Amino acid sequence: MNTTDTYKTIDHPGEEVLFKDKNSKFFGYSFPVISEEDVKPIIESLKKQHHAARHWCYAWQIGTEKIKYRSNDDGEPSNSAGQPIYGQIQSFQVTNILIIVVRYFGGVKLGVGGLINAYRTAAQLSLESSKIIEKTIDVKFCITFEYKNMNKVMRIIKERQLRITDQKLELDCKIFISVRKTIANEINDLFSALYEVEIKQVSD
């Protein structure tokens, strides 16, 4: 099986997890995100929930082929929080995900090594409590044709069990389909070969 067109992610927030070290408490959370704009409201909401906490450190990764990521130490020593959290995102090979670890300081300093271990462990526990799923990387096409050519277009869609995401069926018809990346070229060629039918790739 060719897995170049699949990726791992979560589709629901994971359960809250707790890791303790020398009276400090580290609460770990994981959330599905699909854009950078999703991140800030989630962090703001956790800050309200944990208004007495000292730090809200996080890392996120978005994208399947073009990857964007960021990590934030939120006042902890440099690279002692955000990077260990991001390391777990890489270790579990997940994307479109945000992991936040909320720290309540327990009065005893943990040192950089202790912090790295605590943030990494809380992120790991958070991912272990999440249901990780596999999704396909899809390519979207728009097929344009006159109504009289409907049957030959629909025949290919039915034979290949293609997923229609939208359609406008008038005199001039448009059908939008979503196909797995590994068969995208083949599907493109099938429709391109049809007389009076146009197919072009579209972005979201």
From TrEMBL:
Residues 22-125 form the Impact N-terminal domain. Gene3D superfamilies: Impact, N-terminal domain. Pfam families: Impact_N (PF01205). One of its GO terms (cellular component) is cytoplasm. InterPro entries: Impact (IPR023582), Impact_N (IPR001498), Impact_N_sf (IPR036956), Ribosomal_Su5_D2-typ_SF (IPR020568). One of its GO terms (biological process) is regulation of translational initiation. PANTHER family: IMPACT FAMILY MEMBER YIGZ (PTHR16301:SF20), IMPACT-RELATED (PTHR16301). Belongs to the IMPACT family. This is Uncharacterized protein, YigZ family. It comes from Aquimarina amphilecti.
